[in-house]
Amino acid sequence: MGLYIETRIRADLEDLWNRTQDPSQHQRWDLRFTRITYLPRAEGEPQRFRYATRVLPGLTVAGTGVSAGERERPDGTRTSALRFSSPHPLSLLAEGSGYWRYVPDGDGVTFLTGYDYRPRWGRAGALADRLLFRPLMGWATAWSFDRLRLWLERGITPERALYNWLAELVVRALVITVACTGLGLEGLLRLFGPLAASMAYASPLLLALTISLALFKSPLPCTPAARRCVRQPPVRARAPRVLGALKELR
User: Could you write out the three-class secondary structure of the chain?
Assistant: First the structure.
């Protein structure tokens, strides 16, 4: 699989399964989707669904997919696999497949995904995917997994988690802006009075330190962050067998 994301969530397996398999709950925490709708199906058939993603105000790309899951496995794990495609001409993602795996681990569950897709638009699309879209998809998936973790572990709703993230982003941007314009430094020098001259020599260092803290300081515990997730797969990671069963379905 092209992309791999893994996190550990201290939660009940059944609760995690419900938050990820119920489309009304899935669309709340997964940044990649705005709407997910299950389609009617006969007993024993894989679940077909429609999805939509709001790319820009007034612009939504949509697609369809099919999924199947193994809720009870001999080793106690669970697996869900899907195939998806989008006919929308503005969707860089043409078609793809992926899986979710749920591995109980002591007082929690290791929740992981692996997925890949084929971009459209020929060579230009492949280049845009490699340089921008694929890194963005990896970040969005990891960020969403941590958002889900906060919901299950700390009771922070996805909507509140998004607000926390935006608020922290604004604060970091303001700190960088103030530092770069020199407003914060001038105020600090005035505060120290006689020490202003000696502190002026340290201004480049203070500026670099302030910007570094704003950029790289760890997010608050209540803020979702992609960096908390594992992004490299184990050496022997492989797709589940249930994914192969969906190969011929569209």
Answer: CCEEEEEEECCCHHHHHHHHHCHHHHHHHCCCCCEEEECCCCCCCCEEEEEEEEEECCEEEEEEEEEEEECCCCCCCEEEEEEEECCCCCCCEEEEEEEEEEEEECCEEEEEEEEEEEECCHHHHHHHHHHHHHHHHHHHHHHHHHHHHHHHHHCCCHHHHHHHHHHHHHHHHHHHHHHHHCHHHHHHHHHHHHHHHHHHCCHHHHHHHHHHHHHHCCCCCCCCCHHHCECCCCCCCCCCHHHHHCCCCC
CA distance 188 to 206: 11
Which residues face 230 on adjacent strands? 6
Report the sign of the C-alpha dihedral through residues 70, 78, 51, 134, in that order: negative
The length of the chain in residues reads 250
Query: With contact defined as beta carbons under 8 Å apart, do 95 and 83 qualify?
Result: yes
Q: Output the tens digit of pLDDT for each of the chain's 250 residues.
A: 589 999 999 999 999 999 999 999 999 999 999 999 999 988 878 889 999 998 888 889 999 999 988 888 888 899 999 999 999 888 888 999 999 999 999 899 999 999 999 999 899 999 999 999 999 999 999 999 999 999 999 999 999 999 999 999 998 888 888 777 755 455 545 544 554 445 444 566 666 777 777 777 889 999 999 999 999 887 766 666 666 666 654 4
